[in-house]
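Please review the protein record below. Let me know how this chain folds according to its tokens.
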Amino acid sequence: MIRVSVVGAKGRMGSHVVEAVNGAEDMQLAFALDAGDDLSVITPGNTDVAVEFTVPSATLDNVLALIAQGVDVVVGTTGWTDERLDQIGVALAGAPRANQAVFIAPNFAISAVLADHFAKLAAPYFESAEVVELHHPNKVDAPSGTALHTAQAIAQARRDAGLAPVPDNTQTDGGSRGQVVDGIHVHAVRLRGLNAHEEVLMGNAGEQLTIRADSFDRISFMPGVLLAVRKLAEGGHAGLTVGLDRFLDL
């Protein structure tokens, strides 16, 4: 049995993780902790993998604390920057266990991971590309980690193909053109009734490709979370891994 502790267990995502772990035949719940609880109770003696789903302002300290305690961590909280990821890498380099692992996923929905992968494959064939992400208004970060990851992947694929910058003759936009991520415009919509959605728009003269992924309920993320937990528990993934695509043989 894989012993799993959940940090952020009373949150919108964490509560679903607790339910998913309790429903998995190969897992058992060790601790379900939330804001204000003492993370030091989570140790390798009682936990094989910790799952961290909290808020961007708390996640870095939580993950660093769990690394220092020798625990492998699956992280679903978004808001990670290159600087923050570097801090995780440094912490892992000095971790108590040589094979310690941290996994961070911009998105755990299989549909979103595949959409990101398809966008990267398609990017070299189109002159223009933009990303639109749509979420519920309770989401605290914008644009989403998924959209940032998608834009970065598109930009890298375009660079590798030697493409020119995306054409855009806008003179003054007042911010309406969205955040520019590696040359790719990313737009964030916050609307009551939505859950988690992303559109990748690519265009050439006379044609357009739209890649869209929709998660209508948070249960759509649970298969990806459990997959990541199982991968870390089986070993062989020491260090920092980012993106569920790394576990899908894409």
